[in-house]
Amino acid sequence: MRNFILIVLTSIQVMAQESLPFSIIPPAPDEVTAAYTLARMVQGLGFRYYWATEGLTLKDLNYRPTEEAQSTLETLQHIYGLALVIKNTTENSPNTRPLTGIPDGYEELRKATLTTLSEASEKLIEATEEQVSHMSIIFDRKGKISNFPIWNLMNGPLEDAIYHTGQIVSFRRTAGNPIPKGVNVFLGVKN
Prior knowledge:
- By secondary structure, the protein is mainly alpha-helical.
- It has a single domain (23-190), classed as dinb family like domain (Four Helix Bundle (Hemerythrin (Met), subunit A), Up-down Bundle), CATH 1.20.120.450.
- Helices cover 59% and strands 10% of the residues.
- It contains 7 helices and 5 strands; from the N terminus they run ααααβααββαββ.
- It has helices spanning 2-18, 34-53, 58-62, 72-91, 106-126, 129-133, 151-174, and strands spanning 94-97, 136-141, 144-149, 183-184, 189-190.
- It has a 3-stranded mixed β-sheet. It has a two-stranded antiparallel ribbon with strand order 4-5.
- α2 runs antiparallel to α5 (106-126), α2 (34-53) packs parallel to α7 and α4 (72-91) packs antiparallel against α7 (151-174).
């Protein structure tokens, strides 16, 4: 009976993981456009995030390289906020600060981040070049509105999220739980 329960729980966990986006990077489009390029950058981030966060343990989530540094969990929360900025930019929606409504728990946070990145990628794939040229990052800090051009998305939130995802990889390796073998970021697959 114990083995049966273990098999069922493992199957449920595998099915839940398979339903999350970015276990692989989707095939590339046939043409190169600004929208497709941005979408591909988001997909690359999603793929890296998926595997950087796959199978994190409580020890991993609590790990922090120094007392002053953010823990892995706090870094995941920051990446979630960056994912929201990316998605909101594709919708020209404001990013309210301070950020509220961060999902509770590792699994919920991971799913929300991956889903948010997937939604951003889809919006970019569907966008025309004209629509992309009018996208901007909008912040609402207690009623003070600021706007930034789409260019800032690339060198700001997108690159910042990639940077912090690399930190997660480093943190978990240091904590003794490296990412699964066979993750190939160049091809966007896990062998």
